[in-house]
Amino acid sequence: MKIRSNHCVEKPFSIGYQKFGRFVGRHPWWFFITPLLMSTALGSGFYFLEDREANDIEDQFTPTNGPAKLERRFVQENFPLNNSMFSNQRLYTDGVYASFIALARAPNIFTDAALREVLSLDRKVRQINISIGHEQLTFDGLCARKYNKCIPNDIIDIVNQLGSKIEETELTFPIFPFGFKHIFLGYSVGGVNVSSTVLKSAKAIRLFYFLKEGNRSVTDLWLNEFLKVFPSNLSLNFIKVTHSTSLSRQVEFEANTKDVIPLFSITYVIAITFSILSCLRFDCVRNKVWVATFGVFSAGLAVLSSFGMMLYIGVPFVMTVANSPFLILGIGVDDMFILISCWQQTNVHDTVENRLADTYREAAISITITTLTDVLAFYIGLMTPFRSVQSFCLYTSTAILFCYLYCITFFGAFLVLNGRRENSNKHWLTCKEVPQDCPIGRSKWYDLCCVGGAYDRQSGAEEVQPMNHFFKKYYGPFLTKPWTKVCVILLYTVYLIISVYGCFQIQEGIDLRNLAADDSYVVRYYDDEKAYFSEYGPNIMVVVRGEFPYWDEKNMSDLESCVEDFKNLSFIEKDIFTSWLKSYKHYGYHEKLNLSTENVFKTNLDTFLKYFGDFKQDVNFTNNSIHASRFFIQTVNISTALDEMNMLTKLRDTAKSCPVPLTVYHPAFIYHDQYAVIVSNTIQNIGITTAVMLFISLLLIPNPLCSLWVTFSIASVIVGVTGFMALWDVNLDTISMIILVVCIGFSVDFSAHISYAFVSNQKPSANEKAVEALFHLGYPIVQGAVSTILGVVVLSASKNYIFRTFFKIMFLVIFFGLFHGITFIPVFLTFFDICSSSSKVDSEEERKPDNQSLCKYQPNHGHGKADEQEKQLYNNHTFVPDNHNQTCPSQKCTSVWALTGHMQSGQMCMTSTVPMFRLDSQTYEVQMYSPSSNTLLAEQNCVIGNHCQSIKHPVM
């Protein structure tokens, strides 16, 4: 079966770009100045940057419609906070607080010396005051209260009461009976050594200082003062201290933007330096220093214009967006290298507008495919439920579009201006005309600095660069050797095995400590908290939704069964259970009340709640109906992201399986919700994006099977990146999810360039096609990959997890994408010669002799029609058969060279094969065929007149 290439999209597209390139070449200043003016206008949008900043962690890094947010709304509506009866257990947010952890230098913190320092710190915190106008506000005036007293730290009360006897006192853990109440020590004492509930030693004490909610401006002042004075100027000999506040995580997260600004400046310097070095030529005329510089500048204009436009529109600017310029720089420079490579292959004797037209014709498909795939990948990322991802995708996709627009306008215009300089043989720096040949007697330095304009005399193009020769003469032939292909297959097998293994090791979710810089005080606090206070996790509220007959024995049996299901979970502490209903029944038993009847149950409930103020916050008892109630269960050993994910899933599954309508909630669930959606959303985005990439490849790459290879490359790179990022300690979170979507776009970039070059070249065998594709695009692909890595490499030095993660995954994406593009894909394509067979079929059909195109004779009646055909030949780069009626006289030639031009009457036969001819300074290759050739038997009697033609030359 013959496989035909589909050029219905690719060919018109190339022709359209060829015409556009010629138009840009004729009017370069329009396309050079307009982007500058546009960037200036749009860049003024940065005036709104401060107003558009949106770095609220909950808003940006949690699912927009996460279940926990709906659960919190229900809790807020049914259990409003009572500031006069504060209970941190019953908060539906994290609360407003300051905290510190005192860590003993010795094995036990319960020593007299260590406890004295802890008590001293406690007094120092309570003495912190702030000034508002003429008013002084102390902790006592701002603290959260219960029974008109500041919420105490129970462990401090115990230490104060026992005094020096504390070392001799047997403290029980986690519950310690103190006076008339039982105190839970699990949150305040950590790193414990317990023997049958008796506390033998402890490493750390944690204290909380809760403030009243409702006046954030005042409480924020006190918390900031806490951070200034504590624990500065402390002389501590027996303990070490780490501290944090409810504001710290947000404040430290916002401070990260300061870390990236100097890195961005360094990146641009690196990118410009690399681009200049890559485009440096030892020819003072052909040198591309200014071209490289303006290529990087074009990417910078794209960032300025796109970000400014987004800020004008009002799109939130999240810190994750700060990664985008590094990415755009790499993409822009990549397109620049492709255009420069195509420009260098054009004829230097051609006019600059025709050179740009040919450049655009050759590069249009490649850079358009990469742009479309990248942009669509980011637009598909808008479907994620994370606002940080949505903002990043919107800013980045818009920047890529501007990058593409400026590449074919601003950068193309500069190629024309630089081409005019080269055509005049002027020096790249002084712009003064220099000789093409070194004068006799001049030194080599003079030849290097003051002589230029060299080109390939055979092809008329610029001299091939050494790296291109490397790919054609060494790397390509080496890669296509049979034993090399075997090694490549083995290498790919090892790569795939390691990648799949890594995929099964991946962890989900973003650790909130990672939102702060590595050297932040918050990180040290979180580390101590995880090390010494992870035994007891969050205290979970279980909410009974709607009206429920608590007095009915059958319904109560169902509820109690559900409670037992919760208690039987492996991460729940059975003995720590807080329930208003249990206490109410105990109260009814002592008061001899029959609580199994509705009337008695409701009548006595008000009295009970007056005696037990805490429980009043657990029952929504209004209009003589119980609209909702809640009880609390205690989790244990929740220390990793996997523990958090399993806890949330099992709690919700248990609540869903209960016949009683139940909801579970804790403020931390707002952040844990990411576990429920991150994997499914990542798979969904990758699946949709891959399908879209396949569709685009089928449209623009003129061979369906090679489009499938592009899709294969996408899947292979995604598996590799996912597996290796897990082995590099990178979790699957909102940050890595963004880059995995980007991964698809970059996978297409590398594989599409090579696949398109493989399909479109006219070499007869698959191995030769692979070598030719690597010759033309191997070096530009390497340049683009290296430039992208250099664009993000400075992020590896960042103190922030988000930027380092961006670097790690981008490095994996580019490295694996590059390896696929210049190693795996070329080798795999040679195994399936069917991709080249389609081209071969097309080529042979184009070369097939047409009986109607055999040499015809037309007298020389004038030159008008000849001139018109010469013009058509010049524009289309093809031979067009003449439609004449008289054949030539017979005189057989073994091979023919057909010319179109003005000749004297007579005849001409040529038996030698001439490789090229010139017409109006344009060099054309001529395919010669002899009777011995299997491809085409071209029998021509002779050449007579000025329009005799027997060979239909394939379109170049």
Feature tags:
single chain, 5-stranded antiparallel sheet, alpha+beta, 956 residues, 4-stranded antiparallel sheet, 32 helices, 55% helix, disordered C terminus, disordered N terminus, elongated
In short:
The protein is α+β, with helices and mostly antiparallel strands and 956 residues long.
Distance between the termini: 27 Å
Shape verdict: elongated
Low-confidence stretches: 1-6, 834-956
Mean pLDDT: 81
**Helix proportion of residues, in percent?**
40-55%
The radius of gyration is: 38 Å
For the biggest sheet, the summary is: 5 strands, antiparallel
Strand percent estimate? 5-15%
Structural summary, described in words:
The chain is α+β, with helices and mostly antiparallel strands and 956 residues long. The chain is built from 32 helices and 23 strands. The longest helix has 37 residues, at 387-423.
Question: Secondary-structure map with pairings?
Answer:
Elements: H1 10-26, H2 28-43, H3 49-52, H4 57-61, H5 67-78, E1 97-104, H6 112-126, E2 129-132, E3 135-138, H7 139-142, E4 145-146, E5 149-150, H8 154-162, E6 175-178, E7 181-184, E8 189-190, E9 193-195, E10 198-201, E11 204-210, H9 216-229, E12 239-245, H10 248-255, H11 257-278, H12 289-313, H13 324-344, H14 352-380, H15 387-423, H16 444-450, H17 466-479, H18 482-503, H19 521-532, E13 536-545, H20 553-567, E14 572-579, H21 580-590, H22 598-611, H23 613-616, E15 619-622, E16 625-636, H24 641-657, E17 662-665, H25 669-672, H26 674-700, H27 704-727, H28 734-760, H29 766-793, H30 801-831, H31 834-847, E18 856-857, H32 864-876, E19 886-887, E20 907-908, E21 916-919, E22 922-925, E23 943-944
Antiparallel strand pairs: 1-11, 1-12, 2-3, 4-5, 6-7, 8-11, 9-10, 13-16, 13-17, 14-16, 15-16, 18-19, 20-23, 21-22
Helix pairs in contact: 1-14, 2-12, 2-15, 11-12, 11-13, 11-29, 12-13, 12-15, 13-14, 13-15, 13-29, 14-15, 14-26, 14-28, 15-28, 17-29, 18-27, 26-27, 26-28, 27-28, 27-30, 28-29, 28-30, 29-30
